[in-house]
User: Fold this.
Amino acid sequence: MSFAAEGQRRAPSLRHRLMLWMGAGFVVLLVIISALLWSYARGAANRTYDLLLAGAALSILETVSAGEQGIQVDLPHSAFDILGLAPQDRVFYRVSSGGRTLTGQDDLVATNAPPSATPVFADRTYGGAEVRTVTQSRRIALPEGASWVTVDVAQTRLAREARVQSLFYTGLAGLGFVSFIGLLFVWLATRKALKPLDEIAQNLSAREPSDLTRVDIDPPREVTGLIEAINGFMGRLDQTRRQSEAFMADVAHQTRTSLAAMQGHLSLAADAKTKDQMGERLRRAEEQAAKTTRLTNQLLSHAMVIHRADNQAMQPLDLGDLVRQLLSEMLRDTAFRHITVTLEDDADGKAVVPGDPISLREALRNVIENAVRHGPRENALTVRLYRGAGAVVLDVEDEGPGIPQDQRADALLRFRSLARGSDGVSGANGSGLGLAIVKAVADAHGAKLDLEAGAKGGLLVRLAFGGTGTLHRPRFGAAAAVGLALLALSILPMAPAQAEVGVLEVWSATDEPAMRAVLDDFQRNRPAVEVVYREFDTVGLHEALLTRTDPGPDVVISSAMDLQVDLVNRGLASPLNVAAGALPSWARWRSELFGFTFEPAAVIYHRPTLAAVDLPKSRAAIADFIRDNEIRFNGKIATYDIRTSGAGYLFATQEAQLSPQFFRLAETLGRANVRLYGTSGDMIERTARGELILGINVIGSYALAAARALPDLGVYFFDDFNPVMSRSVFVPRGADDPDLGARFVQYLVSDAGQEVIADASGLLPISQAHLGAVDVGEALGLSQDSGQFTPIRLSVGLLTYLDDAKRRRFLSDWQSAVQD
Amino acid sequence: MLTPSGTISDHAMRILVVEDNAELAETIVDRLQREGHVVDVEGHGEAAASLLRHTDFDLVILDVNLPGRSGFDILRDLRSAGRDTPVLVLTARSQIDDKVVGLDAGADDFMVKPFDYRELAARCRMLGRRRCGAASNTFVADNLAFDRRSKRALVDGRDIDLKNKEVQLLEIFLGSIGAVLSKAEVADKLYTYDEAPSLNAVEQHVTRLRKKLEKTPVSIKTIRGLGYLAYVDER
Assistant:
């Protein structure tokens, strides 16, 4: 029976429960494995990238040597190349001995541990960034004794984190897939395992209502209990059905008998001979009518409480109020005039129980009527309400004859009173249904009904609501299902409205005339944008940025790629959300630094002087060619003074890396009394005039542009290789108008910007589409892909030759070669 | 056994029986007429309502299930018209719910069909006594006579010396004779707003009053834990 059917929800299915629990299990497993996986991924990524760090540290240490001026460090290019394998990461290093910095960043002290030949790794913060450091030392024998030299190398963790995430998510995807398969099998297994239940359901639902025979299924062991319970239930149901059939028969019998008796008395009265006889018969008939009435009332009442038990929702009600109200009503009846009624309400207003008031009133009315009917005329009735042992207890005690202990259980059964009445003792007034009604109501309320002996020998009827020993506790509502709602909010980044007003401050190590066309074109569509262009030389620009105190520029442009990389490596640049798909990978670093031109080193010559000469087409051959024509070229060859020119130094260092003959060429040039210039413009101008007849490693873009106007100027590129530099641009952190700066960078690398660079700037565009179309005269066609143009990568590798010690050594070697 | 007698007819009432079952109505009418009351019968709800609007009865016996108009409707109309005619509602057991049980609809009493006719007659007399006393200012039950106006109670023609509070108490009990009054209700009616009502004092007053009414048919029954019930013992 369900007394709170309205409030109940369907219990979750076994399948759902299994899936839910297995799902929860998988989630727990996934969480645990994820934690392990994360730690594993971290370890693996660290191991991989620690190798790079260790390799870099080792290769630096290997170049440490004891020289005449003490400890010498010749920073190897390979160290930064190795570190460059994590292309997005910034790199810091320090070589020190006894706490004194030999080269690198002074403030980079990774560990205080005593020097050790074993690499020591650590995670820490440097310059506001999370870095991984390695510290390794080596003992160097010096004239004054052995000394430790320590190398600290620090690298930001971007590549590691990316690796960790890649490992982790790959692993997680695998796990997720496995979990999915697992859950699939749980689902299948559940379906399979629950099949017998479906069979049972079919068996039961296919039955006729009257078929209460045993379920004849050979069940799996786990549901044997269920089947037995069902069969047991069937048995009881069958018994109940028989009982209710018997009850119907009883009811029919009782009613007919009662009516027959009344009819009998009435017909006797009609046939009576005397008035006294008739009066007596009528009195009997009236008595019988009263009994029939009561029987009918009780039958209907019984049917009603049974019906309500099945169909009524319980509501909280105060038993105290209910009892007071019912007693007040019942006491109006003249039958109560001589009965002493006492109400002892000790529940203190806390007798609230869930219940159906109408059924409860009916039950209580029956208990009280029973007491009055079966007790003496001067009966005393005590109704007691109190709380005890977690229950609300209602006692009704009378001073009647009571029920002997051995008959109390029977008294709760239907028609028992009548059954006893058949022997003529006490059944005269009883319908035999009163206590059966009380019992039915008590059961429906999960209350315990006890019949006991009262203090004065009467019957004590005790109803305990909500106490222990309750069989069916009425339930209110259903357990609320716990659902997890995951709310995913995706907030689209809102692009700021195009600020078409503003001042773009450009700090640039590029001649303004070369950039003018580009700036003008940028402003053409942004008439309200004012451009402030400040020109620097490359080193000055680098210095200015390191020492600036005010916000400074919105964009920084320089041809000195190494110095630009150094600035970015120091964390001075802002990451930009720039679509730079047209840029080759070597021309971008960390989405902060972007190369936007393609400027190979070129050879220039004075066309009239060398018209008849077959100039060497390869870098390998040029040294021989000059040596063979030493007198002719004496004092007429020009190249960059790499001590003062950033571009020259860049070309020279790259060439030194690419070609073993670099210093041989330098010596040859020295013997030919090479003339050194700080800018390409000087060399171009003098060559065009014939003052010089050959210029090596001139910036190709300037040379090509000049050659178009100066017919005497010849320009060509070598067949084997030509270093290519790229003017690079970034938006510094703390810029006044970083959005405008970003838009300018975007413009520079866009197709429109590249077109202007190609057509009107005198610079060469980096975009292959525009680069291939540049008019190069008789020189080798420009190409990103031919292999003859070797671009200098924007990467930490450029830091090698910025190392002070390294630079000093390189310049001194070069100087001694060219000024020999 | 009750027989038509002079004492009863002293309290003869004009009663309206609203009942659509002719057989039942006839037996009720017969029983009440034999007790000396003047009885009208009406079987239709609308007609009964109209009759009640124009005629003043001492008591209405009202069935709930009526053609035309429900008994509750009629009762509600009667009360909202400000009429305090006592009404006894007849109902089938299945209709017992709080509306009737709490007498919220304005009924003074109710009985469940099938009922005992003697009990019906007794309840009618009880309701009649409340009404009668209020209307005529004189309550008479056998040897007890109480004049509301002069605040005098006579037993066997002799003035019993009632204190002020006892007179009030007697008035309260006679006004709701046959119904249970809780001690708190009695106290509320007995004491004015300014006086501090004391339940103990109520008890003492009741005890004294009961003693003074000992020889009369009026009894004040104490129902411990619930309150008091005053009734007229008609034997």
Notes: Chain B touches chain A through 28 residues (CB under 8 Å).
